[in-house]
Amino acid sequence: MVKKTGCLCFVWMFAAAACWAQPVPAQAIAPISGTWFGSIILTDSNGKRSHDTAVLVVASSSTSISGGMGRTIDQMTSWTDGSLRDHKLAFHLDAAGGLDFTLTNIGDHLAGSATGQRLNGQLDLRPAPGLLPHEPLQKEIMAADRQLYKAFEACDVTGYAALLSSDLEFYQDHTGKT
Fold first, then answer.
1. Left if phi > 0, otherwise alpha if psi is -120 to 50, otherwise beta: which for 155?
2. What 3-state DSSP class applies to 7?
3. Is there a contact between 78 and 97 (Cβ–Cβ < 8 Å)?
4. Other C-beta atoms within 10 Å of 59: how many?
5. How far apart are CA 120 and CA 107, in angstroms?
6. CA-CA distance, 71 to 18, in Å (whole number)?
7. Residue 1's pLDDT is what?
8. Range with the poorest average pLDDT among 16-25, 36-45, 95-104, 131-140
9. φ, ψ dihedrals at 92, nearest 5°
10. Measuring CA to CA, how many Å separate 5 from each of 1, 8, 15, 24, 150?
11. pLDDT class of 8 with cuts at 50, 70, 90
12. What is the mean pLDDT of the chain?
């Protein structure tokens, strides 16, 4: 009887442990392709530090990876020698005397370092899918503007309404919300 009780106790503890030990969900990894925005902290050879913004654009296919990096979306420099292995993006930027970047895809951001002869840096970037270079953004705005005015001029109420947010509100200067 003692052996059965001990055996039942062991079985109960094993079953309880199996129920309580839920697997920890893996952190979702953001796709590497696209636009990333964040910060870079640069340190020069004299130890002087400077903080700046960083924009990274990554384009990848099944055979290659390429892109550019800069302070803003309109001040990009193309990078070379891009590779992606085990959630780590590596590339070389010729700017500032040459910098080699290694960024790790950690959940919803890219973090890592840049090393060069004159500068070293630490980066932290987050996805910024709406961040577009000036020319494509301007084309997108102009196309939406043409579509809105075309519907307005044609008295196409359904087409015009489809271009507006459902929670759009109008306010008059004197009487307020209309």
1. left
2. helix
3. no
4. 13
5. 24
6. 51
7. 46
8. 16-25
9. -120, 135
10. 6, 5, 15, 33, 82
11. very low
12. 80
Written as six digits, the tokens of 99 are 């910098």
Q: Is the pLDDT of residue 138 over 80?
A: no
Query: Using H for helix, E for strand and C for coil, what is the string for 95-156?
Result: HHHCEEEEEEEECCEEEEEEEECCEEEEEEEEECCCCCCHHHHHHHHHHHHHHHHHHHHCCC
The answer, as to whether pTM is greater than 0.70, is no
User: What token pair was written down for 114?
Assistant: 């840049």
Three-state secondary structure string covering 24-93: CCCCCCCCCCEEEEEEEEEEECCCCEEEEEEEEEEEECCCCEEEEEECCCCCEEEEEEEEEECCEEEEEE
The region that residue 6 occupies, defined by phi over 0 for left and psi between -120 and 50 for alpha, beta otherwise, is alpha
Alpha carbons 113 and 53: distance in angstroms, whole number: 14
Report the percent of the chain where pLDDT is more than 90: 41
